[in-house]
Amino acid sequence: MDIISAILWPFKWVIELLLVSFHTLLTTLGLPEGSGVTWVLSIVGLVLVVRAALIPLFVKQINSQRSMYLLQPDLQKLQKKYKGKTDRDSRERMAKEQMELYKKHGSSPFSSCLPLLAQMPVFFSLFTTLQEAQASKPGVGLLTQELASSFAKSKFLGASLSETFITASTLSVQIIAAIMIVLMTGSQFITQLQIMAKNQNPDIQNSQFAQTQKIMLYVFPIIFLISGISFPLGVLIYWLVSNFWTMGQQYYVIRRRPTPGSVAHNERQARLEKKGKLGPKASEDTPEIEAPQPTQRVQPVSKTRAKKKPKGTK
Fold it and tell me: Alpha carbon of 7 to those of 83, 290, 306: distances in Å?
């Protein structure tokens, strides 16, 4: 067993436990054991449980992205301050001030990536478990040879869960796979677009961080589109359900806790004001309230009266 397999082993064992448990529950409720519907519902249940368990990491990732958005205006000012200065002292001062900004906002260049990296063993385990099951290969735990063969031979909408767009036996299977690939790609695009259109402060649209987000908006869907043609239908179902979960979860988080200054933040303020949960905005035409004036005017004292007369003089 190599190092990667050793790392993924406990994750795969838990995933197989969940997959087989859902399959057993559904067959107990009366669904056919070898039916594609039963295995698809088992995959859906598996994804929902895993994604629910990863909610704390997802929230941490959203908060990290939010901190990076709030950091961008200060970071742009810093970059403008040291623009054109390439000497060693300037670079060192800029790096030091940049680290102070990250510390102040409680963020770092990689903070938004760490939660995603922490999820990778789970995602790889899900992927390999489903891929091996579709090849009738037994798993490391409760996914026996019999169950793996049942999974591989099961059909959903007339298509075997082990078929891909490339290896499809019929045109109908290719159509089903193509629709799933398009939905998977589209959901990935909408998820990233949701962040850029709703949860970004307009003032940072020209920042390097925002430009990176724009690149990711198109790169990730293209990667999914190209790689999706080689994914078995079972894996496509997993990615599709997972993407829909991410899209809905992200919509909820952005709606409830948007980045200040973003479109989502302005919309939330308007909703709260409409419900009366925010005080009414002050009107620009409202005159300023003047400070109260004293009731009796104090008479000024002239210089001649202010001088004290010598005692005994008239």
Answer: 45, 71, 94
Closest CA to 27 of 38, 43, 15: 38
Question: What are 221-253's pLDDT values in tens digits?
Answer: 888 888 888 888 888 888 888 888 888 888 887
Question: For a pLDDT cut of 70, what percent of the chain falls above it?
Answer: 76
Q: Which residue has the tokens 């059909």?
A: 155
Provide the residue type at 294 as one letter: P
8: which 2 tokens? 């993924």
Asked if 68 and 107 touch (Cβ cutoff 8 Å), the reply is yes
Is residue 154 packed enough to be buried (19+ CB in 10 Å), middle (13-18) or exposed (0-12)? buried
- The DSSP string of 124-165 is HHHHHHHHHHHTT---SSS--HHHHHHHHH-EETTEETT--T
Alpha-helical regions (H) of the chain: 3-28, 36-53, 55-81, 88-105, 114-134, 145-153, 171-198, 208-228, 233-256, 263-274, 303-306
CA separation for the pair 46, 17 (Å, rounded): 9
